[in-house]
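Hi support team,

I submitted a single chain yesterday and got back a structure, but I'm not sure I'm reading the token output correctly. Could someone confirm the output below corresponds to the sequence I sent? I've pasted both exactly as they appear in my results page.

Thanks,
R.
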Amino acid sequence: MKKHLLLVAAMSAVVANISAQESAIVLYENFSSADAFPAGWEVINSTPEMATLKDGVFSWRVAPAPDDFPKPIDGDKVALIYQASYTDGDGKRVELSQDEWLITPSIELGSDPQLTFGLSYVPMFLYNCSNEYLDFTSDPLDFSERVPATTLKVMVRADGADDWDEVYDVFDLWQGYTLDDLMSKYYSRDFRDNEVDLGAYSGKKVRLGFRFAGYMGNAMALDAVKVTSSPDAGINAVEADRFADGERISVVSISGVEVADFIAGHEEFDRSMLAPGIYILSGATHTVKIAVK
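Hi R., thanks for writing in. Yes, this is the structure output for that exact sequence:
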């Protein structure tokens, strides 16, 4: 029997027998497979102009990390967005409010679902650092009033729901720090790890929104977006452990993108080429769901 048929059978067996205590990857995206967002991802701009001003840098886009950003966590691109401003005819800098969304495909969550992602930003610029909000009499320098600037929020909407729920705000992570701390100890644009508990949505199909919202502040880069949960949802029944000789087998990511194909009985399929995640192997007669770790 050809190597790839054995591999498909072995992979199917692994999926069918995953322990309930283990976590499966429901969604993983490093934004490096193309120059645009994968199928199923959606960008919503606060105004049509945000998608066109300065070649679209004020809207979410896939791009290589700029020189003043750290290297991507995984791959060679990130989801990137800049705070919106321009210089008017009098040479004055004008800041624009933003509410720009990057939304994932619909995903099915099992039990104990968790979202993790890397975010590059400067913590100090989560605050409005205009002079009117600074206390120049304090030593060390601190805020006179803590006013949010642009932040990154994680939003969740279950299928069938009318409204989005806010479940995470990066701004909340930095409220206990003085301005002096933010300037002297944390003034870097490093990728910082973020973890969000999605347990309230166990067993549901959801979409996640990365909401870049506010006025003045940060440019941000998003990378290595991963959702995990126990495999009681998203990896259920395996319909077959082999395909008919000569079938064309399509390998499709959870976001709906075909990442590979092969002919059963004639070509080998190497799963090491796949990024971690869930994939569907689909032929004319059978469909197999696999998890790659």
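A quick pointer for reading it: The first strand starts at residue 24 and ends at 29. Let us know if anything else looks off.

Best,
Support desk
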